[in-house]
Amino acid sequence: MSRAVSLASSVAWVGFLVTLPLWMDNLYFLHVLIIAGIFIVAAMSLNLLLGYTGQLSLGHVAFFGIGAYASSLCSLGFEIHVLDVPITLAPKPVWFSMLVAVTFAGLCGWFIGKISFKVRGAYFVIVSVSFAEVTRLVALNWLELTQGPMALNNIPFLKFWFPGIGDVDILGKVPNYYLVLGVAIVTYVIIRRLVHSRAGRAMIALRENEPLATSVGIDVTRFLVLATVVSAALAGLAGAVYAHYVRIVDPDVFLFIYTVTMVIMVITGGKGTLAGPIVGGLIFGILPEVLRGFEVKPELQWIVYGVLMILIVYFLPDGIVPAVRDAWKRWTGRTGAPPAEPTGTAVPAEARP
């Protein structure tokens, strides 16, 4: 019964989001939803690390920025000189550039995972923050490639070709809204399938009790690196979508506040749950604009923003989604049922390599 209710609510939400542009005539609010959706995708990718493996990355914005720059540079083309040897890349189609961005971000995730998962806790946090700062400095100072603070502009927009229709430009609020919605759904499906797979159960076992998981033969580094690669690739995808939507990218895309925003979305929504980053992203992505509609002073907007976050963390320490789920179980009289998300310290046989 609970599965049927969950499926029905998911279908209802998707139906609502699909039809929203048909009756929403406020293009600015649609823009807010697009930006919130892009950061929801980035937050879902971070949740794979923070929520399902227990590894806090405070440099996750690096993969977002790498995706934005890689896709932009590939679609624009560039010419640089390395040791007086010219290297030229002709402009590529946007869809191909986005695939390059996802691949390159994933490779960066693999590299960082390989060198950093020999350490844990605060050391991993330091490595991730340092990596993000290095990428920001490269974007700021490699003027020949990135234009530095002058930014990359006139970034091409995405086009699709459909039989019988021809080229369809993804330009404007409504087409980009559907693009972001599609990317968010694909990201959700990928993470859901991974979490419920053998590798996902191994990641959760590492999060719950790493020594026990190691004692039964789970390769810690292997599964943590896998989570980092997938997380980085999806964050790179979010960055690529962002770049081709705003059509201008500068080093500010690596600002630490963006990582903080992702962490807030994950923690308040409910880390380790599939719906948590979505709920947290919708609340904290739209809230500043809602407050602006009440003509609240800018400084008061951020005070309300911070107070709400503190209240959620204090009264709902596990996040909004787990709290609502537990309340639903109590209301329906269900007791002793396992949570919807796979948790626990037990390591299933299937999770063992």
UniProtKB/TrEMBL annotation:
Organism: Rhodoplanes roseus
Cellular location(s): Cell membrane
GO cellular component: plasma membrane
Keywords assigned: Cell membrane, Membrane, Transmembrane, Transmembrane helix
Transmembrane segments: 27-49, 61-82, 94-113, 177-195, 223-245, 251-267, 303-324
Domain of life from the UniProt record: Bacteria
Keyword check for rRNA-binding: no
Pfam families, A to Z: BPD_transp_2
Membrane topology note: Multi-pass membrane protein
Protein name according to UniProt: Branched-chain amino acid ABC transporter permease
Principal location: membrane
Organism ancestry: Bacteria, Pseudomonadati, Pseudomonadota, Alphaproteobacteria, Hyphomicrobiales
Chain spans, region Disordered: 334-353
GO molecular function, one term: branched-chain amino acid transmembrane transporter activity
